[in-house]
Amino acid sequence: MSAFVQSIRYEDRVLTILDQTRLPQEEHYEVITDLAQAVEAIKQLRVRGAPAISLFGGFVLVQEAYRFEAELSIYKQALLETSATLLATRPTAVNLRNVLDQLNPIIQDGTSVEEIRERLEKRTVALYDQDAQTSRQIGIHALELFQSGDRILTICNAGSIATAAYGTALAPFYIAKERGIELSVFASETRPLLQGARLTTWELQRAGIDVTLITDNMVAHTLKEKQIDAIIVGADRITRNGDTANKIGTFQLALLAQAFDIPFYVAAPLSTFDFSLVSGEAIEIEERDPQEVTAIQGVATAPAGVAVFNPAFDVTPHTLITGIITELGVITQPNEETIEQLTGLQPLG
Ligand code: MRU
């Protein structure tokens, strides 16, 4: 694991994040000391990527649990309020909710402050360790879909810094590197916040993985001119039928994959599934500050006062997805039946 930059560290009860807004200029680590700072870090995307947000949220709750002491019922109430505050930070990714759904019962059922603290910490550390294993398994399964020499396009950053290690969509490239298999990555820059340009190229270049940067409007031309073999993306929420929310721009990549007759893969852990939703229609799409569109890193690129639409995610219908790669294996032609067959999870409702 040590080969990866750790975007979240929890050591001796000190919680530290790699500030992803400062990359690639600066590898700056920030110690998180209170809830307001943690909430700001999530909202500003200092910590980002669905699995990383969920693990960070877990550690923030642990930190709060050790920060104060009170009569048991008051203590529980305050911690559950912290949990609700964390959940409200960003609406689209479901992983944080899935982690808090495991941590909240520890608070509710706790019989002492000490027991709650210890159990929250133990569970969150276990989830963190498990995430690295899960991501590695995703990478191993994804690599089976590629051949040496393949050129694969991705968007945003679903890499090691968006998880505990390896990433999801980027995991196969790390496994390929370990095994001496040559794969080339094409990274779409991912306006407005440039996670592809700033983060994906940074972490892949650092790992010695072949990566080429393109702007978002170069995708169709690149698919044609560079004979791209497949597209692979991460996910923020996958509904019961396989519809997938991911970074804005993902849907148009899936449409292009169909037009060019190349496979379109989604790589995500089971913690990204939301079996309470029947289809992607019900996914809440986060809309963000218009300034992210009217400026690039603080420099205006549009006239003041212009109307802006700034959705952070879009939904790709399952019919455009060739396969969803999970830690358990690949769900080909994802739909309600194929998802249930692989996950064994009973859909809710
Ligand atoms: O707004 P972001 O940067 O948090 O969006 C992240 C993505 O869309 C990722 O693809 C997704 O969270 C998966 S990260 C393994």
UniProtKB/TrEMBL annotation:
The GO molecular function terms of this record are: S-methyl-5-thioribose-1-phosphate isomerase activity
Q: Which reaction does it catalyse?
A: 5-(methylsulfanyl)-alpha-D-ribose 1-phosphate = 5-(methylsulfanyl)-D-ribulose 1-phosphate
Q: Which InterPro entries match?
A: IF-2B-related, IF-M1Pi, IF_2B-like_C, Initiation_fac_2B_a/b/d, M1Pi_N, NagB/RpiA_transferase-like
* Annotated keywords: Amino-acid biosynthesis, Isomerase, Methionine biosynthesis
Enzyme nomenclature, EC number: 5.3.1.23
Catalytic EC class:
isomerase
Cite the active-site annotation: D236 (proton donor)
Locate the residues binding substrate.
Answer: R48, G49, A50, R90, Q195, N246, K247
Residues marked Transition state stabilizer (site)? C156
Q: In which pathway does it act?
A: Amino-acid biosynthesis; L-methionine biosynthesis via salvage pathway; L-methionine from S-methyl-5-thio-alpha-D-ribose 1-phosphate: step 1/6
Q: What does this protein do?
A: Catalyzes the interconversion of methylthioribose-1-phosphate (MTR-1-P) into methylthioribulose-1-phosphate (MTRu-1-P).
Q: What does the similarity note say?
A: Belongs to the EIF-2B alpha/beta/delta subunits family. MtnA subfamily.
Query: Which HAMAP family does the record cross-reference, listed alphabetically?
Result: Salvage_MtnA
What is the protein named?
A: Methylthioribose-1-phosphate isomerase
Q: What is the protein's species of origin? A: Exiguobacterium acetylicum
Q: Which gene encodes it?
A: mtnA
